[in-house]
């Protein structure tokens, strides 16, 4: 391999490493399109962690027990941590956190549309953990073997914590479903709201996802959207049954031939509507982030100013 | 019930209410690293509050749980000092509130750790490490904001003007606290004062902020006479438990 | 229960939630006269809400009272459109929210007043006079803010950008509303639209504000899918009843 | 009288009219000290209505029934109305509302210290109506016959509504006291907090109230502080007994000889402390008013700007 590499063009060497499952590292040569695609994908993922703090953060002050409050706060804190790893991973590709945040705030960069749905009851904390984190894990676990080293390593940490979060979410649902009738109703009502939006998390149908092939070739994507969506349904339908809940899709039915669940068609109009910024919470989520950033400006400036003063004093002292 | 019960409950309420306030920042901090730090301190205090509530429930011996104590008592039954229920305001207000609390909390825990009550001593010992970090964090931010920009100094000054008057309650013993101090169960606040004062003087000097004149202390929270902020906080905190009492979550 | 029950409940929730939001202004208005006006509108809507809740309770016939319906239902059971639960924001946001509501409300009441249900007609007739005043008030303020200062225009524009997308839900019938419209119990919203549209055009022209392009309408409130704001509002609104259920106040 | 008046100095004429219970009207000559004292007193009263909206406004969103919410909101609205009458009455003396508000916001003008105490439970809405409005009425009823016409007429309207409010407050207390034990406890706890502060509403002891004599001479005050305080105790103690509540003063005892209740000494240190601005809510109340005023500035400016534009256009049209 190493000897052969001498004769290949940089592109060919690069693709050969990828095909051999050798990680690409920051100092390695990479095609500009690969770099850009990764920056877009990683920063979008980082933004999703950041914005994803909001719908769950919405219930921290109203969690129904001290234990749940503590678990939820720790979970949202983990998401902030994931954001940090991911921004750092993206920075190794030559962008900066400030630039990425500016793109988020201007609306240029995207984040996962799922966070544009509101959290309306305590059961939503269950659904977000169980379904949303469940879908995220299906998307993310393959990324632990993705071709770009810093991203893959960040994803290993992220996935470990995410699967912990997913179990916590399921446990919230289980507690509700084993509780009083009013709690079970709460769980069902939340499932009704979250089911379809989580199916949308895997993105448009393969037939409408033109970049999939290139991304799979670069091994920054390892399954198609429809493959992952099917996996998700196959995983979740039995769990819903176990909980005694009904998935809000009358078309869901075990298909013996496919050895998989059939399911209904996602409302793609809603999907594109939310992607285009017209979900219920798009405006609020972005506003909340922009506001935190703007109101924090004086704090960041103060910290920088103080550090500079201190450095100047230390230089004099030396 | 043990004579320690009301005091342990007061400690629990204090840590819970401050943890709750800090948790309101979650997702809205001025920079991601500080969002994490605020959540961290909140989690530490929440953990400490739970230890106290569990102990208080045992001391009371009436079968109440930590959640009963936290979720099913009204504002006038809460015993936290006024300081910790004050709203977050801007980051400077949060920092000043935290600094005033941390500075007292750290010394109090040092005292409790060496006290005769084994359970309190063990909670205090565990919490002391956390409290030391909290105090370091809030002290550093006082310094950064004081010796940062004109804007940060202006905001810090305003926060000090608003919140300094709530510091006195922390070290002003209630009748309950005096009694326990006489029994040797609670550290004498007078003895804690020099260390608290020295640290304040040190941090303010580093921050280039002149020591504010001692204001008339606002008392009341520790005897259930709160500011109007607590009621709203509890309405939110307790909503689900009040709505569906007796269920498991 | 009567087929009218869910619709009357929706009207009740709508008036209550908007009344509640307006009442949050009390003591904080931009000038004393407008503090009075906001309280006045809030009181009118509260009175209207009570009439609807009382009627809804009778229609349901399960012995629930107006307070049971208002204080003991969760956010996902509430049926108000998203518009009215949106936070007050600055005065411009409050005015835009009010204008969008008033403009629909006035036409709706005109329709209900002539409808076949005597009780609804009588509530509508009483409320119509008030609604006419509300619409006059909010229309005048749209004009003042639009054709006032640069600052007021900037704020009005921002409020329109934020809130206009919630107007569509008012005139988009839910399945329940469609059914009642077919039965002739509820006015056809399509028929109300020209008058609403004409008044909007007139007021915006007076305000020198170009008509905003029709945004994608945000739907959901009338079927229980609310924004995150409603939960906080209800936690406050319902706190005492949730804490002490079944008592007389 | 009219003939004699020709021979008197303006001061003597003025005092003669007052002594004859003839109202002073805005256009009449009056001593500068009388004008200044009245401006201070009326504006302080107006400010009290304005600031007094806050402690009760604090419970509007949490009132326990729709009926109570409606009554409370209407009550606070009445207070705004009283503020309006009183600012207008003061304006007849040659000041302006803007000037009076500026003095309030700068801390130069005072308002009733009672509003620097917080409202902490629903029972506080009872106590504020029953005790605070009760004390206010005792202070205010004599002012319906005060020497300055616009003030006296404003007070007639104010007192009529205040006594209605006071009955509503008493009725809240009565409902609580006839309700569940937890409600009665709530009522007692509130009474414990409000009793002494309401006794302070009548001002310092006569021996420490040097301006009383002049004010009584001008008939802008008709009873001394201690007289009113005694009246209040004599009125309220039986009402508390009727409610089954205990006034938090062990010294309260019927004095057969005086035909009045003895009662304990007010904590004057607390009184002066709150007057000097160190009550729990002084800072918040003033901040709330200043903030409302500052945040409302652009609204007031827009209204003025629009009115000017409209006027200019109409002038052109004519």
TrEMBL record, chains A, D:
InterPro entries named in the record: Aromatic_CoA_ox/epox, Ferritin-like, Ferritin-like_SF, PaaA, PaaA_PaaC
Record protein name field: 1,2-phenylacetyl-CoA epoxidase subunit A
């Amino acid at each position: 391999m190493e000897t052969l590499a001498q004769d290949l063009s940089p592109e060919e060497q690069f693709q050969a490493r990828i095909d051999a499952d050798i990680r690409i590292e920051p100092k390695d040569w990479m095609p500009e399109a690969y770099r850009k695609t990764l920056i877009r994908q990683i920063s979008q993922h980082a933004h999703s962690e950041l914005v994803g703090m909001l719908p769950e953060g919405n219930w921290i002050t109203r969690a129904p027990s001290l234990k749940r409050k503590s678990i939820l706060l720790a979970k949202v804190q983990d998401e902030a941590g994931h954001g940090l790893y991911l921004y750092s991973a993206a920075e190794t590709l030559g962008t900066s956190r400030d630039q990425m945040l500016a793109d988020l705030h201007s609306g240029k960069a995207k984040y996962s549309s799922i966070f544009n749905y509101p959290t309306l009851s305590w059961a939503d904390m269950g659904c977000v953990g169980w379904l949303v984190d469940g879908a995220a894990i299906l998307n993310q676990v393959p990324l632990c073997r993705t071709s770009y080293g810093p991203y893959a390593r960040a994803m290993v940490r992220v996935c470990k914590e995410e699967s912990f979060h997913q179990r916590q979410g399921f446990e919230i649902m289980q507690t509700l479903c084993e509780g009083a009738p009013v709690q079970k109703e709460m769980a069902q009502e939340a499932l009704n709201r979250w089911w379809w939006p989580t199916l949308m998390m895997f993105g448009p149908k393969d037939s409408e996802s033109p970049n999939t092939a290139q991304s799979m070739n670069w091994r920054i994507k390892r399954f198609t959207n429809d493959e992952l969506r099917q996996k998700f349904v196959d995983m979740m339908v039995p769990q819903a049954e176990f909980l005694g809940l009904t998935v809000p899709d009358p078309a869901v039915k075990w298909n013996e031939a496919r050895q998989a669940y059939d399911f209904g068609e996602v409302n793609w109009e809603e999907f594109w509507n939310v992607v285009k910024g017209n979900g219920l919470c798009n405006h609020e989520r972005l506003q909340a982030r922009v506001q935190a950033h703007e109101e924090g400006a004086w704090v960041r400036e103060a910290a920088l100013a103080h550090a500079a003063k201190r450095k100047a004093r230390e230089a004099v002292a030396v | 019930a043990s004579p320690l019960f009301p005091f342990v409950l007061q400690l629990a309420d204090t840590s819970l209410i401050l943890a709750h306030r800090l948790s309101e920042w979650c997702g809205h901090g001025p920079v991601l690293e500080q969002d994490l730090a605020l959540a961290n301190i909140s989690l530490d205090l929440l953990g400490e509050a739970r230890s106290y509530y569990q102990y208080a429930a045992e001391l009371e011996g009436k079968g109440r749980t930590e959640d009963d104590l936290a979720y099913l008592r009204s504002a006038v039954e809460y015993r936290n000092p006024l300081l910790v229920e004050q709203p977050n305001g801007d980051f400077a207000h949060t920092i000043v509130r935290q600094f005033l609390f941390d500075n007292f909390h750290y010394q109090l825990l040092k005292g409790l750790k060496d006290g005769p009550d084994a359970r309190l001593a063990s909670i205090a010992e565990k919490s002391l490490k956390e409290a030391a970090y909290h105090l370091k964090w809030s002290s550093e931010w006082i310094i950064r904001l004081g010796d940062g920009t004109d804007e940060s100094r202006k905001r810090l000054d305003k926060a000090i003007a608003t919140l300094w008057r709530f510091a006195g309650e922390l070290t002003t013993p209630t009748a309950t606290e005096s009694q326990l101090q006489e029994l040797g169960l609670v550290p004498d606040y007078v003895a804690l004062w020099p260390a608290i004062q020295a640290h304040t003087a040190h941090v303010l000097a580093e921050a280039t902020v002149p020591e504010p004149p001692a204001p008339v202390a606002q008392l009341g929270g520790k005897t259930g006479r709160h500011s109007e902020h607590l009621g709203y906080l509890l309405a939110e905190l307790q909503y689900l438990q009040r709505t569906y009492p007796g269920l498991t979550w």
